[in-house]
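Q: Structure tokens for this one, please.
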Amino acid sequence: MMRIVRLLLFSILIAVALAGLAGATARADAPFIYVLEADGVVNPSLVNYIDRGITKAEDDGAATCIIELNTPGGLLSSTEDIVSRIARAQVPVVVYVPRGGWAASAGAFITFAADVAAMGPGSVIGASTPIGGGGGDLSDDERNKAVNLASQWMKSIAEEHGRNEEAAMAAVIHAASFSPGEGRGTTDLSSYNQEILGVERLDPPLIDDAGAVDIEELIERLGAGITLANGEPFSIPADVSIRYINMSALERFLFAISDPNIAYILLSIGSLGVLVELLHPGIILPGVIGAACLLLAIYSLGVLEANYAGIILIVLAFALFIAEAFTPTFGLLTAGGIVALVAGSFILFSGTPYEIDPWLIATVVAIFSGIAIFLITAILRAHRRRVNTGREGLLGQTAVARTPLDPKGMVFVEGELWGAVAEEGRVEPGEEVTVTQVEGLKLKVRKKSK
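A: Here is the predicted structure, written as tokens:
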């Protein structure tokens, strides 16, 4: 009897194991898609994220990879990398401009390069004319070269996918933009687009699907099957599951700091931290924060392909502010620093699609100008103030070297900066010295006896 019971229990366990294995196999074989969310400027950080997502979709056997794209544009080099990666993908790639979003400039190239280009209600695509840094104008020769190259590239992309080549090129040459209905060819073009293209509606269309309010509705449409711009049918399994591939913490951080305004803020905070540390050696915290921000700014500026001339001018500006503190010129160095800071700020992203918010530039310039004016005022007060207690007021006082004294330099005593001469030996910044003599606006000092 016991033997029969054991056999029954063993049989039940085998059945349960086989059922679990079958369920796991069924789940593994169930079709699925991956969704990437690309929201922001097109830069190398976004390239890495999209490349990782497409690679995972290929490796895991996804039915398709959908990129939800909402971007004002970005770097040409990064756009080329993304378009190239989509072209090499071993799974169908769908680019979807979400409801109310836009695929401007670089975003239009990426969308048109996809196997399926889709737009949600209220979205817009186009305006891909090359521009100078910060939206500035290019010279005639530069513009002609850039527009000719970009328009031919756009034509090649549109031709490969059977999209309307004239409309795609108009997005580059004439900065034309299209609504979902216009792009799909289901509604009449705007009067501006009609004037450019000479037609009322696009045929063939620019995009493959229009009107899906979200990813779920888009997947339903693709599951039911759609007709692409080139006339070919396209569909995905109707019962697919959705899996999102999110940016990693590191990717999100690098993507966040790869913004021109963030890069400018990091550069400013870093320079301010270094300035405070130089004026007050030994505080440490401002110097550490400043150094960290400068390192992050260097990475961000490199990613954004910032103009080296702008970086040099901004570094020069802070060097002049520091020099004013240690070599008082009563405002001359400060004035030069302000001019260099303003000029460097405005040309920092010259030659790129990016620009810094003018209000941010004004705020940074105002802060550093205020600091510089405060330093100048303090120096003038120190140099003009009558010493109420005579020479004896400073004699014997303990001062702290702000710069190396070899033998001349600056010391800090009684809340003021003074020019000083070391009587013997070299004095390092931060060392304490004793005032031994006052000669006009100069102090003679000696290393403090230990």
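A few notes: The chain has a mean pLDDT of 83. The longest helix spans residues 2-29.
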